Amino acid sequence: MSAQVSDLARRLAERAELVCRHYLSNGRRVGRYWVVGDVHNTPGRSMFVRLRRHNGGKGAAGKWTDAATAEHGDLLDVIRESCGFAEFRDVLAEARRFLCLPQIEAESKSPLPSVPIGSPESARRLFAMSKPIHGTLAETYLRTRGILGLHELTSLRFHPRCYYRPDHDLPTETWPALIAAVTTLTGIVTGVHRTWLDPSGRSKAPIDTPRRAMGLLLGNAVRFGRADDVLAAGEGIETMLSLRCALPTLPMASALSANHLAAVSLPPNLRRLYIACDADAAGEAVASTLTQRAEAAGIEAIALSPLLDDFNEDLRTFGVNELRAALRIQLAPADVVRFLPSAVAVTA
Disulfide check for 123: which of 21, 31, 52, 192 has CB 3.0–4.6 Å away? Predict the structure, then answer.
């Protein structure tokens, strides 16, 4: 095992910049380093990944240090933390997928012990078996919904033959599916959300319940970016991805339902929470509940309201520039400068 780990770490280090661009997409190259907020892909400048080989040791390519926390490691650690894997075998499998290497025979011939259906461990296995979204039917589906800029989202994956059981008494079917990781505030995968797709990729699968979640969901969320002091939270994945098209650097969380949004865990350093409200009674009720929770914790809560029924409908009907213009007047002034693309902030 140690030889396998060393070989994978070496191969990743030889492709350090490609690894960083994929798993630490919120950072950028600065000279011989990739600079990002932390190993969870938070925007910022405190973590440095060396991109060039330098005589082994701490100066080797792929080695990283977070100046804010004194944490350090290699690119396998980056994969583990950015993807939220709890099991090291999942880290190794993901590294092999990234490097386009075959999975080792021991993994394919030795079945894993069974776990309860719908459990967090079952969810982690499904996420680990899925592949990055780029170039898949899942990307095609989201693009038909007007959602672009998906290549850097490590919380979304694709499975070509995901099990679907219409009912306990009916046989299991397989459909392609968009797989979204549900994680804790620290990035641990506790569940997944599945959106089964039509084989064309242009719509959801023609089944009774094309969306289902499993695992430990309460308090957790599908996350796009790692939040520190500002966060936007809402119900649906497509709702939050639509907002992200307009505000690409604002950290976001999809709680998957109104009830789960009301109970979503808030980061300890949060000072401002944007609540993406659906235009219905349930959306208004959850916004009120979450606002009370936030204000009781000393967090400013601001509702973001769509022009139509939800933000995806706004995006598809009016386009991203109109969506940005509508959001601009709802954001705190400091966040207009911080998160809204500068061209819109000037011209809107």
Answer: 192
